[in-house]
Design brief:
Helix content is about 15%, strand content about 35%. The chain has about 800 residues and is an alpha+beta fold. Among the domains are: about 120 residues, Macroglobulin (MG2) domain (Immunoglobulin-like); about 80 residues, no CATH class; about 100 residues, Ferric Hydroxamate Uptake Protein, Chain A, domain 1 (Beta Complex).
């Protein structure tokens, strides 16, 4: 009997070890798959955190492999959007990127409504994940014509400095986060504390932890950002709560319930080393458990425990690791993740120093300044990389060193759940114990957002990616019969780029008539001709050979969903700086107005005329776009901006006499009307993806009004797009088997303009008080060219200026630098 028992134990141990070993191989394989199918990340640096209508938003977008933070080998196309408070996309730019960064800009319309706008950037491949993985940044925009907007936006976005403890008058929102997720009977546990409501986040809260017998176990105190920590030895027979006194009232907050059995990972992070204690109170101990540590999917440590011990310690040297979040997960013998702990790695070997030398340390107004800069590693060696730089007026823009930047976004916010307030505080001081202590509390109180083990290990039915990485622009569509029901059919197609150096390509559409040309890389616009034949282009081009029609497809069937969670908040902590900025913006407006008047002085001319109203001018501009003049039933989208998010079918439904049912349209219940887009006849499919944001105005013509169009007995729906609203519908001309149009290429960023005050000249009649003194969107440092030189002119404003540099080294280390200089 004893021999059988021993044999059973040996066999069980062998099977358990075998299962654990196989599971380890599965984990390693899944991590390798995750790395090979890596996510992408985007960060966008702007020249300023806030703007006035009429200004320009200058930006540089960085696109990287989400694991290595180096150049991604997937996407080469970035979509950048400016979105208003009604979640309507008011402007979009499509950028082609060859390296890790690309420049762009938005011109802010002078008539734009004030509000908190959203700058969003993503790749097509990123659309396979939730939209909250896109880069998003809140950008307040003020309108000088609307004084109330200046006051309201300033007050709503400015935060007061740290609030005194006596101002706490209501119950704060307090949450508790046990290390490794649970309170476990008999296992000492650290518990992170976090104040969730923004109003009380900077208020020190003192409290007591008590058990169900109302006996005090320990006290606690919240620190900066509303974070705190306690240690507790839980007892399964007791419940625990936090007691906080506010204005003579006691508020109680229950702590999580204690569980009977479980696992725990406790961490001490001293910077150069991480010390972990893994423990359990199960009777078999930690036998056949697997500890896995990874950084963004890259394995950095593993331990398969073969003994039945109840705890063990691990010491990990961080000198060979990347900067960023490391995830420690403990799996039981069945392969289930039992507990998790996040740790932030700071490797001093990854330190990057930005060196800046000015040729003139104390420049005067309208003075030329030359700046030399380079990157050095810890050992003083030159580093190659890509940088972007803004130089702004400190009194108007500020120089808060705690706000979001490329380093905090790539290493913190892009991987954690929830928004991190003033994130650069946790990077500002090297080897600072308090800063590292608070950063570890951030790890305790925020979950890992990008990596979920249960999905990775057990989801074997993952569908292929719906959205593929874009390498360039595609021109796609389908070929159909010209007559009858216009069914899709296979045909021979030919694409020709006109203008410049001619380019031609042939392709046969598929069985269902689909064709797709590309990827192409071109900027601005290019004239395109697409032809289709049933028998090929070498055959006799008789009419039957050309009885085919061509329909283009939109680049996106629909815009990605807009999610405003975890939006990066701009630097709006100092209302004094915002007040200075708005005052300076008013002064610039007056200077420009005065200067414009002085350059338009003419001899007196007397003209007698009736001034047209804005409405009359708008009607005339719309009628000028049509072949028939004025339309009785017209929807002007400038007058219905609040409807710009609606689909074209929802808009048509609002027009008198138009019936829309299941994407079928009729006018006054007659047959199918003709549909024209920018004067070219199109089919229903061609307009199905339009929204009010794409449309300038819509005309409905019936009866005699529609007689200008042939076969228009059922009426005409004429849709006119905003300029550049559709790549596939701009200047379309159709003939049987031929489509001729102008394709819109990638956006080319404008060059930042600033006056050149050479010898005191350069717009010398005009005062220069710019808030953005200089914007340098791309600074490339290589092994051959390891020092860059940037030149600019100072303005007429004396005082302090802030130099802000962001970027990436070629090894994937994010770079952030901020310094100041004085103009005398």
């Amino acid at each position: 009997m004893v021999k059988k028992t021993i044999l059973f134990i040996i066999v069980s141990s062998f099977l358990s070890f075998s299962l654990s070993s196989n599971f380890r191989e599965l984990v390693i394989k899944k991590l390798e798959d995750y790395i090979s199918n890596h996510p992408e990340k985007i960060y966008v640096q702007t020249d300023k955190p806030y703007y006035i209508t009429g200004e320009d938003i200058w930006y540089t977008a960085y696109l990287v492999n989400g694991i290595t933070h180096k150049k991604t080998e997937k996407s080469k196309v970035i979509h950048v959007e400016l979105i208003n408070e009604q979640d309507s996309i008011i402007s979009t730019k499509k950028l082609h990127i060859d390296d890790v960064s690309v420049a762009g800009d938005f011109k802010i319309n002078k008539d734009l409504a004030p509000g908190n706008y959203l700058l969003r950037a993503y790749t097509n491949y990123m659309r396979n994940s939730d939209a909250d993985y896109f880069f998003q940044k809140q950008i307040p925009i003020w309108n000088l014509k609307n004084v109330d907007s200046l006051v309201n936006l300033t007050m709503s976005n400015s935060h007061t400095s740290e609030t005194k403890e006596t101002q706490l008058t209501e119950k704060p929102d307090l949450h508790f986060y046990p290390e490794s997720g649970y309170l476990i009977n008999g296992i000492a546990t650290k518990i992170g504390i976090k104040i969730k409501d923004k109003h009380n986040r900077n208020i020190t809260i003192n409290g007591l932890i008590k058990d169900s017998n109302d006996e005090t176990i320990t006290s606690f105190k919240t620190l900066k950002f509303g974070l705190g920590i306690i240690s507790l030895l839980p007892d399964i027979n007791k419940n625990y709560y936090a007691s906080v006194d506010i204005d003579g009232r006691t508020y109680k907050y229950p702590l999580p319930k204690t569980i009977q059995k479980g696992y725990n990972i406790s961490v001490i992070n001293n910077g150069s080393h991480i010390i972990l204690k893994v423990s359990t109170n199960y009777h078999i101990g930690l036998k056949n458990t697997l500890l896995i540590a990874h950084q963004r999917g890259k394995l950095i440590y593993e331990k398969l425990e073969t003994e039945d011990k109840n705890s063990y310690f691990i010491k990990i040297n961080t000198s060979t690791l990347l900067d960023g979040i490391a995830n420690f997960t403990l799996f039981n013998s069945s392969g289930e993740p039992m507990c998790e702990r996040l740790v932030f790695i700071e490797n001093t070997n990854n330190t990057v120093k930005v060196n800046i030398n000015l040729n003139n340390e104390t420049p005067t107004t309208r003075d030329r300044v030359s700046m030399q800069l380079n990157l050095k590693d810890k050992g003083g060696n030159n580093i190659s990389g890509n940088l972007s730089m803004s130089i702004t007026n400190t009194d108007a823009i500020g120089q808060s060193s705690e706000v979001e930047n490329i380093k905090t976004y790539l290493l913190l916010n892009s991987d954690l759940r929830g928004n991190i307030e003033n994130p650069n505080y946790f990077f500002e001081k090297e080897n600072d114990a308090k800063r590292r202590y608070l950063l570890d509390l951030v790890m305790l109180t925020h979950g890992w957002r990008r990596f979920i083990w249960t999905d990775l290990l057990y989801n074997n039915t993952k569908k292929p990616d719906k959205f593929k990485p874009e390498k360039g622009l595609h021109i796609s569509g389908n070929t159909r019969n010209l007559k009858g029901h216009k069914e899709r059919r296979q045909a021979f197609t030919r694409l020709t780029f006109l203008g410049g150096v001619p380019y031609q390509e042939h392709q046969q559409s598929s069985i269902n008539g689909s064709f797709k040309y590309g990827p192409f890389v071109f900027n601005d616009t290019i004239p395109v001709l697409i032809e289709a034949r049933t028998k090929g282009f070498k055959s006799d081009e008789n009419s039957k050979n050309r009885l085919i029609s061509i329909h283009l497809s939109p680049s996106f069937a629909s815009s990605p969903k807009i999610i405003r969670n975890d939006v990066l908040i701009s630097n709006l902590n100092d209302s004094h700086e915002i007040t200075n900025y708005l005052k300076q913006a008013r002064d610039i407006f007056k200077i420009n107005e005065t200067y414009a008047k002085s350059t338009r002085v003419l001899d007196e001319i007397i003209i007698n005329a009736k001034k047209e109203t804005k409405e009359e001018l708008r009607d005339q501009s719309m009628s000028d776009r049509t072949d028939y003049g004025y339309a009785t039933h017209r929807m002007d989208m400038q007058a219905f901006k609040n409807l710009s998010h609606l689909s074209v079918f929802e808009l048509l439904r609002m027009l008198p006499g138009v019936n829309v049912s299941n994407d079928s349209i009729s006018i006054r219940n007659q047959g199918i009307p003709l549909i024209y887009m920018d004067g070219i006849q199109v089919n229903l499919d061609d307009i199905s993806n339009l929204t009010g944001n794409d449309i300038d105005f819509i005309d409905i013509l019936s009866g005699a009004d529609a007689a200008i169009f042939s076969n228009s007995g059922n009426g005409v729906i004429a849709i006119y797009l905003k300029n550049g609203a559709s790549i596939s519908a701009k200047n379309i001309k159709r003939k049987p088997g031929i489509i001729d149009f102008t394709a819109i290429g990638f956006y080319t960023a404008r060059e930042f303009y600033a006056p050149e005050h050479i010898n005191g000249f350069g717009d010398n009649l005009k005062q220069d008080i710019r808030t953005t003194l200089h914007w340098e969107p791309k600074i490339k440092l290589t092994k051959m060219i390891n020092k860059a030189e940037v030149s600019f002119f100072t303005s007429d404003s004396k005082g302090k200026y802030t130099i802000k540099i962001e970027g990436l080294t070629d090894t994937g280390n994010p770079v952030y630098h901020m310094s100041t200089f004085e103009v005398e």
